[in-house]
Specification:
This is NAD-dependent epimerase/dehydratase family protein. It holds the Pfam family Epimerase. Helix 5 runs parallel beside helix 6 (about 150-170). The longest helix has 21 residues, at about 90-110. This protein has a seven-stranded parallel β-sheet with strand order 3-2-1-4-5-7-11, with helices on both faces. The protein has a single domain (about 1-185, about 210-240, about 310-325), classed as 3-Layer(aba) Sandwich (Rossmann fold), CATH 3.40.50. The two termini are about 35 Å apart. The protein has helices spanning about 10-20, 35-45, 50-55, 65-70, 90-110, 150-170, 190-200, 215-225, 245-260, 275-290, 300-305, 315-320, 325-335, and strands at about 1-5, 25-30, 55-60, 75-80, 115-120, 135, 170-180, 180, 205, 210-215, 235, 240-245, 270, 310. The radius of gyration is 20 Å and the shape is globular. The protein contains 13 helices and 14 strands.
Amino acid sequence: MILVTGGTGLVGLHLLLQLSQEKEAIRAIYRSEKKLQHVKNLFQAANQLAAFEKIDWMQADILDVPALELAFTDVTLVYHCAALVSFNPKDEDKLYQNNIVGTANVVNISLSKNVKKLAYVSSIAALGNGTEHNLIINEETERNNEAVRSDYSISKFGAEMEVWRGFQEGLDVVIVNPGVIFGNGFPKEGSSLFIQNIKDGQSFYTLGKLGIVAVEDVVKALTTLMKSTISGERFILVAEDVTYKELFDRIAEILKQVQNDKRIKKPKYLVKKWQVQVARILEFIFATLFFRNRMLSQSTINSLYNLEIHDTSKIKKAIDFEFSNMKMYLKGLIEKTK
């Protein structure tokens, strides 16, 4: 039996849609009844309601070891997709618990239950650092522990360390490090907010870069690596490194075309790093006085001006992999959600 953690997230949803087309039994764990109903609605919209009903859904939390052990009954393969994504400094402990302790629980139970292979969905945030003289990042780039890192980045790196520990103790593992994942199903979360913000008239941009990838590519890489003999390896999944301006302009052009709405404009104001630094200080004062959440941490600001480029030659060679054309993909994605 295959177990999928995080079955009600973006990657989990699309992974289950793919796995449900195959013959092997599937179990998926979830925490929220509301999110489970949302996923059921998405399966129904894809004319896959029968496939949803065939999945063995179990309510469990990766921090609840007894419930997790029950979910692992008769499981041979595990896709670990569950994670907390947050860049709020107040979520440091939640990130540690969900991403590091939760992954340690998944690894420990996989070892005790003699699971054959574990595939873990990490992030490019866990990768090493570029330097002034070399901005190209690959799977072997060293991580500078002195660099300013988000708590999310630290938690995903810590989670990877738990997976590598499992590998050293005899568990076959593969890790994928996707960039910002675009996909259908969660219009008010994650990468979909880029599209929503342009719809709402966002007018600012930076020239920093981000790596983007289609969720279907992440799923394809995951399932192909799981079926392969590859173990003890990690793979970067980035279809394209694009500046924020290029991405926002592209989204605006597609929205204007698809919705036939001339009011949609490309962001036109370039924000300099010093301006964001000033905003961070003001936000900190405001958040302290009025007990509000902070969003502009130093690590977040650094990411807005990051110029690193991701080398994806390893995944392409390992399984003869080709990424989706992200210009065409975004057009199709926006057309589905208009």
